[in-house]
Design goal:
The protein contains 1 helix and 5 strands, in the order βββββα. It has about 80 residues and is mainly beta.
Amino acid sequence: MRPTPRIGEADRIDAGEWTVCHFMGRGTNDGPLGPLPANGRPASVPMAEILHWNEGGQITEGATFYDRLSMLIQLGYAEEPPTA
């Protein structure tokens, strides 16, 4: 989802030098997604972001996590895995 994604209401945890944020990322596939062409379909996936802050209030490191398989299924590029 290359375009500007929309972020839903976020839950934030302040842990001093670290913050954790959990939110829903929503967007429309209106640009290429790696080798996959745009198809105009929407997707919504839960996301988490973890950031480390220095004493000056600057971010020194961070990571964002999301469910890529669910996004690809919603966009029609992958199939739902079989259930046991």
